[in-house]
Each structure stands twice: as structure tokens, then as C-alpha cells.
Amino acid sequence: MAAAATGLGLGAVALPLDAAGYVFEAGHWDYALERRGVLFAPIYLPRSVYAREGLSYSPTITIDLGVLRANLFTYPRYGHYYFGDYYDDAYRSSGIYPQFESESRHTWYDPIYTYDRWHYSRTDTRWEERRRQEYDHRRSDLSLRPARTYREMEIQVARMPEAQRSNVELARPLQTVVQSNASPLKYEQINTDTRQRIARQATDVHKFRDERVKWEATGKTNPNAVRPPAGTATLSPAERREAVTLPAEHAAPATPPAEHKEAATPTAEHKSP
Questions:
Q1: Which one, of 144, 147, 152, 140, lies nearest residue 88 by Cα?
Q2: Are strands 21-22 and 80-83 parallel, antiparallel or unpaired?
């Protein structure tokens, strides 16, 4: 763990499947969350908006990484993280688990939790135990769970004593974060020319993505494409998502309640600067 002392965590080796075969993704050292940049809140845009040609959006609501850690979940079947109110039994039945269960189930590797456990346990020997207790408290007490929308969070924060607000304030405006000077990151306001240059770069990336999709699609008929060794069972992307075997009690995933599907998503009033 020598590299961990410098604020680095080890990512896992992976073998994802694409149209041309398997792609080897080597394990790598990555920065701790605080050094990875700014995490902005997800938003919802109707198709009539995001389908517009040349659409650009500047996010303004950031996610507090401290509160994020306390409400971070993993979905090993898809290799994704989820944050917010995923405490109901329906989510566990669907395969969405609190991070610390990666240590007991041994069916996936969680680099963020592994690093955090090593880092915080050096000064708090009961850190892991406290994480489990906090999770149990939120499962049993709905009032302790994070709000599911930005507007709900504002109402929740306004009703709480000022000393307790930081424990539930999952999202904050970027301007507030910049003015507080509490972040280790440095912020710089860019001019119009720079914004336009970034927008052009984003367009080039999208074009490259589309070209890569076309290139990978040719792998299905190209005899020279790199393929798995003979006799190796090849799963489609849809089948591969079901490759993680869950315990018997999770064999029939339940559908999460509809009202929980947009956890911690800012409302329309906060979707634009």
C-alpha cells in the first residue's frame, strides 16, 4: 500500500466485451475522490431538448463528496456506482448494495471503499463499524435519508439546525463552493472564446465516438478481427450483465419503486445557470 500513502487507489483489472471481442483493461492507480475534480449533480433533459443540434449545458450544482461517501452504493452486475436514497429493500433485491458489502460477498472489488477503509481506519479503528451503523440507522429512519431532489434537499436543510446541515447537504451551487475556499481545487473563470473552443472539442469527441461504433460493428463480419480463443463461450452485452451470480435470496430481483428512480436529481428550477 505504498502508493496509497500518496493518495492513490488501485483500480481492478477488467475484460469487457465489445463488438469485436474482449478488451483487456489493466488495473491502474487512480486518485482519491477529492483529487479527481468536481462531481456535478445529474440532470434530466427531455428528448425535445437534448436532441437539439449544437446544444450545450454548463452544470452549476456540485455534489459534496463527504455526504456522497455516506450514501454511495454499488451495482456489481453493471459495474456502476449509485448515490442517494437507495436504502429500501427493493434496491437490495435488485442487486444494489452498500459499499461495505463488497468485503463480505466477495463477488466484486470496490476500489473507492477499499481505499477509504485503509485511509480512515488509520485514525479511526471503528470507521468500518460506524459506516454499517449509519447505514442501519438510515434504513430504519426515513428522516435520516438524503433527499431525492434538489428542491427537497433545500427544504430539508432549511428545517435543520445550522450545525447539522452539512450532514445532509448533498448538493451545493458551484458558486457557493468557490466562494467558501474550502475545496483543495483551484477554480478559474473562463472567457467566451475558451468556452467555444471546449464546445468544438466536445463535438470532435462525439464524432470520434460515432466513428468508433461503426468501426467496431465491422468486427462482426471482418475475418481479421481479434476474437476470443476457440472454444471460449462468448456472451452478448445483455447476457454479460447477468454474469454476476447473486445469493439465492436475490435470485428474483424486485423492481425499485418508481418514486425512487431519480434519487438526488436537481429539479427543473436548478437545471440551468
A1: 140
A2: unpaired
Query: What are the CA-CA distances from residue 68 to residues 51, 90, 106, 115, 255 (Å)?
Result: 30, 21, 23, 15, 24
Say if CB 54 and CB 31 are below 8 A apart.
no
Report the 10 Å Cβ neighbour count for 147: 20
pLDDT tens digits, one per residue of 22-75: 666 666 677 888 888 899 999 888 888 888 877 778 889 999 998 999 999 999
Q: Name the one residue in this structure whose C-alpha cell is 452485452.
A: 237
Q: Are 158 and 57 in contact (CB under 8 A)?
A: no
The residue behind cell 460506524 is 130
Q: What single DSSP character describes residue 39? A: P
- For 25, the 3-state DSSP assignment is strand
Q: Note the pTM of the prediction, 2 decimals.
A: 0.63
**162 is written with which cell numbers?**
445550522
CA distance 159 to 167: 13
107 in Cβ contact with 262 (< 8 Å): no
Task: Output the nine-digit C-alpha cell for 178.
Answer: 468557490
CA–CA dist 170, 61 (Å, integer): 10
- Cell readout for 158 is 432549511
Write the single-letter amino acid at 67. Answer: V
Query: SS3 helix, strand, coil % of the chain, rounded to 5?
Result: 45, 10, 45
State how far Cα 166 lies from the chain centre: 21
